[in-house]
Amino acid sequence: MTFLLNKLDWLAEKVSQFTSFLAALVLLWLVGLTCVDVVGRYFFRAPVVGAVELVQLSMAGIIFLSLPLMFLKNDHVIVDLIRFKTDSWLSWLITLALTLVMIFAIFILADRVWAYALRAYDDGDQTIYLHIPRYLTVGLVTSSIYLSGAFLCLRAVQMLLRPGKYQEAAQLDE
């Protein structure tokens, strides 16, 4: 069982690094697009047509392609209202309960976004200026959310196999 979990950890790490690499490429694209748009607008009075749409789609790509790595590494913004001893059973139980709640919530969110993608596909919904089908972007967002949920499930399984051991952020890949 440990061998299988180690292989799943390795695979999850590679997949999350790949999605983060894609997010970096989209960010590079966004920087280039912004530079070309600004130069075209101010020096040639010819902005990039549909630049606003492309920026919106690129921002969605950056955010949601970075999401799986954040969930895998547990790099959420965390505000500790009550600090527990890190090796206590209570902290482990609370962390497990919150992880299970997040799994439930993220799969509900993914299902809702998937329903929106299907509706956009059925309606033939497109962006205003460039006529890019919306279901492509929403489908990418949906797959990223589902992948993040799968990584949360992997973390929950790891926690269940190490009962009573609380894991701080980014210590799951020991």
Overall description:
- It is a single chain.
- The two termini are about 15 Å apart.
- Helices cover about 75% and strands about 0% of the residues.
- Mean pLDDT is about 90; it is low at about 170-174.
- The chain has helices spanning about 1-45, 50-75, 90-125, 135-160.
- With about 170 residues, the chain is an all-alpha fold.
- It contains four helices and no strands.
- It has one domain (about 1-160).
Salient structural properties:
single chain, 174 residues, disordered C terminus, 74% helix, 4 helices, mainly alpha
Silhouette: elongated
Sheet of most strands: none
H and E order: HHHH
Number of strands: 0
Number of helices: 4
Distance between the termini: 16 Å
What structural class do helix, strand and pairing data support?
A: mainly alpha
Q: Give the rounded overall mean pLDDT.
A: 88
Could you give the topology of this structure?
Layout: H1 2-43, H2 51-73, H3 89-123, H4 134-161
Helix pairs in contact: 1-2, 2-4, 3-4
In short:
This protein is an all-alpha fold and 174 residues long. It is built from 4 helices and no strands. The protein has one domain.
